[in-house]
Amino acid sequence: MYLTGAFSYPYLEDDDSWGHAKAAKYVSIEHTYIQPDHFPMHYLEPYPPFYSTVMGVLHQVHPESVQWVLKFFNVLLITLGLPFIYIWLRKFTQSDNTALTGTFLFAVLPCFMNHFIWAQTLALVLWFPALYSIEKMKNEKKKKWLVTSILTISAILITQSSTAAIFMMFFVCYFSVEFITTLLNSKKHNLIKIFKSKEIKYLFIAGFLGLILAVSIYWLPEIGFRGWDDAGERMGFIKKDFFVGGTTADTSGGLVYGLQDFVIAPNVSKMDQATGLGPVIFVLLLFSIIVLLYQRKKLINPRNKYLLISLLWLIIGFLGVEGNALPFKLMPHRFWVFFAIPVVILVAWNIILIYNSTKKDKAISYIIISLIFAGILITSAYPKYMVQTSQWPPGVGWASNEQIQGYIGLKELPPNTLVYSLCKNPKTLIGMDKMDYPWIKEIEDYKKIALNDTLNNNLIFLKKYEYKYLILDGSCVKDFGLNQTNLKIQEIFSSGKFRVEEKLSNKGFFLFKIL
């Protein structure tokens, strides 16, 4: 499903993916994620650069197509997340059936994961090895799992900042429940003794040292290098009202979700984050909450701690999704995927509860469970399939459909052919598997004057850097006006120094071979 959707169109979707293509190309060639000051790339430092860095390293293995690398390995990361989800759920819930059911629900839930190309994919997939390591550490109380927990937590905290902040919220809830339930179930209620127990001590150390490691190896050096204001501005956090609920300073658009948004999983949804649970999963979630509130005394039982943790996670997830209705928010629409985690745990538990309550009559049990799964497939899995396999657009920075078709046509040229666009952002060329070096200062500076410079100077510049093709498209009209663009086109046609590639050109896109 994810792979079909990702490769169903011959371009990169939205705008984030083009930026990751440019950053990955830079890393693959320059072998560093430290970017030049004159050409800031959003998805390299100070923004946690490790998703783009991983893609850049993989691009070195497959240098012919950065687009293929981004699409394929992004989907591979999502797919690899499912086995880790299963082994974590199996340890967390102490139930094979709940783990298997939960893994199925994660796979079909519309608001959990998609093939959108961004750093959150890697950051979220890292959650589940980290959570599994924490469970193993807590149960076995061995230092090797403590070290693994520290490393995986630290990895999350340097992969994407918003995902890191949310993980720490979830971890604090996890630690709090473990501490409080241990206290309540102990005979002497000795706080110091409980805190010194290996289980609680290791949990605290894992979280604390994971945070310290991430801060010391990346965040403090980066802030020291860039400064707090510069780092925050480059990452997009220093904006007026960015964290104020109801504002449009972030990508949530100030939207407050209603009941329908939770119940219905639409067939058309946002690319970066689909919404909705589906009516069957929503009803099962409500039933789970009602049962747990009715049996709330059982929540402090050590075997049921995961349910109490999941309820707290559910509250955090819901408040996060509805951040625009609150004084404080952290990109509410991105909270859906984290809200999905406790939803799945509680619904999986409820399905197994229903099965265990009816299994004395196998016929009735099979009918009920079959109806539940059929309902989930129809109302949740199908909408997810429709969204994930639909034609996602290539972003907003395009002058016309003709321009889009022109850049798609560049795929007919050999991979990594040097092409210079007079006006369009070079990330588009790179995302279409052509080559440019926008991080070279002279190339970046010349972009500002190229259209207004003389054709002779254009040629000197193009041949100096061994460009093979020149593009003039609708972006020139947007940036420099129709008259200036037409004058340059006429000058190029009459010079005899260029040959128009008619098969790959149209009224919104001209591709010239440099002779």
Keywords:
4 strands; 22 helices; mainly alpha; 515 residues; four-stranded mixed β-sheet; 62% helix; elongated
Integer average pLDDT: 91
Low-confidence stretches: none
What's the gyration radius in Å? 26 Å
| Topology order in helix (H) and strand (E) letters | HHHHHHHHHHHHHHHHHEHHHEHHEE
Q: How would a textbook summarize the main sheet?
A: 4 strands, mixed
- Kindly state the number of beta strands: 4
What is the terminal separation in angstroms?
45 Å
Helical region count?
Answer: 22
Q: Helix coverage percent of residues? A: 55-70%
Q: Strand portion, in percent? A: under 5%
Please give the order of strands in the largest beta sheet: 1-2-4-3
Going by helix content, strand content and strand pairing, the class is mainly alpha
The coarse silhouette is elongated
Q: Would you mind describing this structure in some detail?
A:
With 515 residues, this protein is mainly alpha-helical. It is 62% helix and 3% strand. The protein contains 22 helices and 4 strands. A 4-stranded mixed beta sheet has the order 1-2-4-3, with helices on both faces. Strand 3 and strand 4 form a beta hairpin. Helix 4 packs antiparallel against helix 5 and helix 21 packs across helix 22.
Short description:
With 515 residues, the protein is mainly α. The chain has 22 helices and 4 strands.
Produce the secondary structure layout:
Elements: H1 2-6, H2 16-30, H3 50-61, H4 66-93, H5 96-108, H6 119-140, H7 143-157, H8 161-185, H9 191-196, H10 198-226, H11 228-235, H12 259-263, H13 279-294, H14 305-321, H15 336-358, H16 362-388, H17 401-409, E1 419-421, H18 426-431, H19 441-447, H20 455-464, E2 469-473, H21 474-480, H22 482-495, E3 498-500, E4 509-514
Parallel strand pairs: 1-2
Antiparallel strand pairs: 2-4, 3-4
Helix pairs in contact: 2-3, 3-4, 4-5, 4-6, 5-15, 6-7, 6-10, 7-10, 8-10, 8-14, 10-11, 13-15, 14-15, 15-16, 21-22
